[in-house]
Amino acid sequence: MLNNTIAVNFRELLQFLKSTDFSKAILVGLAVTVPILLGLYFDQLEIGLALCFGAFWSSPSDVSGSYRHKKIGILCSAALVVVVSFIGGYLDLPLFVLIPVLGLLTFSIAYLSVFGFRASLISFSGLLALVLSFAHQLQNLEVYQYALFVGLGGLWYLFLAVVWHRINPTGEVEEVFTDTYLLTSKFLHIRGRLIESNTDRDDLLPELQKIQVQLTENHDSLREMLIVSRKSSGQSMYNGKRLLVLTQLVEMLETAISNPVNYAKMDDIFSRHPGYMEMFQRLMFRISDQLEKIGYAGSDRRKLPNNRELKECVARIKEEITKLRSIPKNENLEGFLMLQNLFEYQEKQVEILRKIKWLLDDPKPEELELIDEEYARKFVALPDYDPKVLVQNFSFASPIFKHALRLAVTVMIGYGVGTIFEFQNPYWILLTIIIILRPSYGLTKARSKDRIIGTLIGGAIAFIIVSLVQNTYVFAVLGIASLVAAFSMLQRNYKTAATFITLSVIFIYGILRPDILTVIQFRVLDTVVGAALSFLATLWLWPTWGFLNIGKNFEDSLRAHKNFLIEIGRFYSAKENTVAPLRITRKKAFVETSNLSSAFQQMVQEPRSKQRNIDEVYEFVALSHAFLASLASLSSYIQNHSTTEASEGFKSAIAQIGENMDRAIHALAQEGENADFSITNLERSFEDNRSRFDTMAWDFENAVKTGKVRNLQEAYLILEQLRWLFSLSAKMLKLSSKI
User: Fold this and answer.
1) Helices and strands in the chain: count of H runs, count of E runs
2) In 70-224, at which residue ranges do the beta strands (DSSP E only) sit?
3) Residues 16-41 pLDDT 10s
4) At what angle do helices 546-574 and 580-604 cross, to 10 degrees?
5) Minimal CB count within 10 Å: which of 442, 576, 642, 734?
6) Phi/psi class of residue 300: alpha, beta or left (left: φ > 0; alpha: ψ in -120 to 50)?
């Protein structure tokens, strides 16, 4: 056990040392160290610091995504910090003028976040430059010269980022793939545990939903990195192969979600056929284990697992199900059909896994059928950079507008407090505010706590080291090492990152100032004040509570599900060869379900007084996941089986389920009393709809029993899914009217 633990920890350490977080931290350390050393060598420390600041401020936009977008992001960051540094050089104004100007600048820069995630990082670079313009008083350079060298520092960082990409062009893609393999493995392992009747599903299902959100985000990141890169640099064989692997991973997630759906019925079947649960679970765990091995194998083809164990598991289950089929008892029919469907889904997972391993084993180009570039681009959602977005979001209905305004007011208060009470470094309060204050209450609260704890730990460690060592060279080495460690941990563990940030700041100040113990004292005090102001701002300044916005998530999720349902019906009826519209609507449904889960997680982190209708919201989220699982099951079946002609009953059922979805959307959209859409009318129209659906289901079931349906397995699966979808849509409709 101990040896296994050591092996796992060592493997995780190796993964961390190969990660982009660590390589970026090294890159940032190099970007800021070289200019300072050159400045000291040529006795031009001020120029060295300007270059260092420019490189440091341009680094936040260097995040996962397409190489082209990354370069543009770094360039935009460099341009923004040049402008902000130039303006910051002339902020030597009276306090009553400076504070409003500071607020206006903060709002303007923060408001750029309306253009998306990468724009928010560019905005963060500008805010860093604005705040730290208060920290550095120019001695030998003019303001325009300083701003110019800051821009050159940004270009210096861009140069290093480009060089590193040339050295390791696939490193970032491979890291996201590794993370996706491991998350998918964990997802499948939990699915395997869920088929046990005595497992705690109330704990496992929310965990499964969180992993699904992470996987959806990873799939989107990989699409951007692989598809946008192909668009900008031409189709490469590496990108083409990895895009095929990504397609298989997406298919694996959908297959996993699609079955089993009804756990209560699954428990009943396994109770009557007890040996099958263990066999299926063993197969699911083996698939999970192989994905984990693929994740850790990286680009080493020799470490790819073989298929022997999987073949044995599949062969045994197939043999046992054949035996069950041969027993001439009517009561075995339902059990056989359900186990047969479950087996076919797991058999498909094995086939997907084999395809992934084959693709990773470097097949010959002529053996591949690469995905068409125009088709692939349909699955990438690019941000909208139209200036109209600025106008559209300029209202209190926009969370970004409220956050930018909240941040601006908090920064003004923070600077006023720091100046009036004569803090040693008021800009440290501002720095804490722009780092901690996030659009959501939960994240701001967590960051405030982690920042304070990390600062206290870092201050204590620095105090001990300073008490034992008084050597500026040691401080320099520790300061740079702490900075690298901070950037390495920033996305993984913010509390640890805050500890190393505090250490790096204190040691760097220790080089410049002899009173380092005073620096530690004020660093801790400024951090506590900044964190307290940030936390209070999320409570009192235009708070964005989850219950105010989650209705929009409900609507978006319902619309995406309805579109997916309609596309399934169209594909099943038309028997077309093209699956692009079906897969696009499927992707949208997965994304919107993940967004709904994220909104709910944000809501549960808020004060209890703000968790309006929390039980109903949780039930709606669970129903949304169940509805998507059922849709995925239907979609997967009709894409991978030769199906019979769609009956009028099937078309009618799809229409009636869609009608429930429309009513639910309509109910959520009501802002007040509406005579044409009262709850009474809603319930009456729903009962009529249910009556029609029950009649259709009864006719369909009779057709199955009397042998009038050619494909019994197909009819059984579709009838069960239609009933389940109608039941779920009815529950969502009733919840929508309550919410």
Assistant:
1) 29, 0
2) none
3) 666 677 788 888 888 888 998 888 88
4) 160
5) 642
6) beta
